[in-house]
Amino acid sequence: MTHDDAGRMTGDAALSFTWDAFSSLAAVKTSGSLTEALQYHGLGRLVARYDGAGALKDEYIWDGDQMVACRSRTNLRGGARAMAAAGVARAL
User: Fold this and answer.
1) With contact defined as beta carbons under 8 Å apart, do 7 and 19 qualify?
2) Phi and psi of 85, rounded to 5°?
3) What is the C-alpha separation between 57 and 2, in angstroms, rounded?
4) Backbone angles phi, psi at 77, to 5 degrees
5) For residue range 55-90, what is the model confidence (pLDDT) as tens digits?
6) Which of 5, 48, 87, 89 is the 20 to 30 Å CA partner of 19?
7) Global confidence as pTM
8) Who's near 27: CB < 8 A, 6+ residues apart?
């Protein structure tokens, strides 16, 4: 495993990780190719995940500081799946 000067993990045998200026995970790469990108809003909360081609995978809906739902684009119906904030964070 490798780490940057801030102590954040930047890679292991299979993956590399890119962090933004606020120490939030911004991208995951496999063998140099983008696997997943993450987007945060102004308060630093995760609002979207994108696949390596830039297609939206998931949107996260917030009520104040509580994550209340995840809308998955991989779900053909496009419906919202309510999740507890802690449960979603573990799933990521």
Assistant:
1) no
2) -55, -40
3) 28
4) -80, -15
5) 999 999 999 999 999 988 765 444 444 443 334 443
6) 87
7) 0.73
8) 17, 18, 34, 36, 37, 38
Q: CA–CA distance from 60 to each of 8, 74, 82 (Å)?
A: 24, 14, 10
Q: DSSP code of 21?
A: T
Question: Which residue bears the tokens 């933004």?
Answer: 20
Structural contact between residues 35 and 29, judged by C-beta atoms closer than 8 angstroms: yes
Count other Cβ atoms within 10 Å, centred on residue 47.
Answer: 16
The span from the CA of 55 to the CA of 38, in Å, is: 11
Calpha distance 30→18 (Å, rounded): 12
